[in-house]
Amino acid sequence: MRLLPALLALAAARPLACADSHWCYDIQAKASNYACLGPSQWGGDCKKNRQSPINIVTTEAQVDPNLGLFSFSGYDKKQKWKVQNNGHSVMVLLEDEASVTGGGLAARYRAKQMHLHWSEELDKGSEHTLNGVRYAMEMHIVHEKEKGTSRNEKEAQDPKDEIAVLAFLVEAGSEKNDGFQPLVEALSYVPRPKMNTTMNDSISLLDLLPKKETLRHYFRYLGSLTTPGCEEKVVWTVFQERIQLHKDQVPRTQPRVWPPTAQFPTPFLWIPTEAPWTGVGMGHSRELPRVWPPTAQFPTPFLWIPTEAPWTGVGMGHQGIHRHSLGWTRQVWPIPSLV
């Protein structure tokens, strides 16, 4: 189960997704009219037994005296981080600037990237659940084991913990989290895949986390990546203390996933497909359509067709106003050789 609990009825004959194929999460598969491969079609190790995420049942957790406090290095360094929409989520590039030891980890782990998981509904965004409860969002800080820092040779060669992920559940409430706001604002600048931006304000990783003294309470298990091919090489740490955000700071729209052969043509013609049929318009892929006559309403849904090469896709869409920017959602399907 990835991101949302809904199960999709997908044709059994469809191919399994591997790490380099066009995969997506449930909600993205639905939005793309199943042009991408949802979790039930993922291949690789995704059908094995030690898969993530999991439901953490606190009454069944056992105290491990070998797990201690974490030691964070570089987590307090403030900078304007680079933010990237990779088509599946929004990722912050950490560029080896921070690392973590302790906490029962076998070596030093270097921070590579941080990403977010969320949903259109506030109570369905997290990947992990705590006693069956799913939270508004989940933040993962992904680390790789640093060579030469293991406590012994056996641990250095252990493939089960090549990656260490620090996972934080995010709870939506009524108070604004000022430390998180620069990242929230950056999301509005990367609404589509392959878009990049840099935060306007400098923040540290510690600015995003709960208070440091609360990070002594966490759950630990060996699991997998939560993306294809789901390799079982991750030591997971899920912190008990939640990050608190105002509900308006939690994104609700998912990154759009496009078929690999579909380009985003510009400009395009769009025509309403349902009443009120009050206008047609010309538009550009990075701006709202211009509608004629001037009194025309924005009809919804609509059909849009490219008017210049490359003519590689047509699509259906729905006009709307999003949380961070004016725009409209689109679904694109490639069409063969029109030019």
SSE order and pairing:
Elements: H1 26-31, E1 55-56, E2 70-73, E3 82-85, E4 90-93, E5 99-102, E6 109-118, E7 129-130, E8 133-134, E9 137-145, H2 153-156, E10 163-173, H3 181-187, E11 196-198, H4 205-208, E12 218-223, E13 234-246, E14 268-272, E15 280-283, E16 290-292, E17 302-306, E18 313-321, E19 326-334
Parallel strand pairs: 1-7, 10-13
Antiparallel strand pairs: 2-5, 3-4, 3-11, 4-6, 5-6, 6-9, 7-8, 9-10, 12-13, 14-15, 14-17, 15-16, 17-18, 18-19
Describe the structure.
With 339 residues, the protein is mainly β. The chain has 4 helices and 19 strands. Strands 2, 3, 4, 5, 6, 9, 10, 11, 12 and 13 form a 10-stranded mixed β-sheet that branches. Strands 16-15-14-17-18-19 form a 6-stranded antiparallel β-sheet, with no helix packed on it. It has a 3-stranded mixed β-sheet with strand order 1-7-8, with no helix packed on it. Mean pLDDT is 75; it is low at 1-20, 256-266, 282-300 and 309-339. Interacts with SLC4A4. GO terms for molecular function: carbonate dehydratase activity; zinc ion binding.
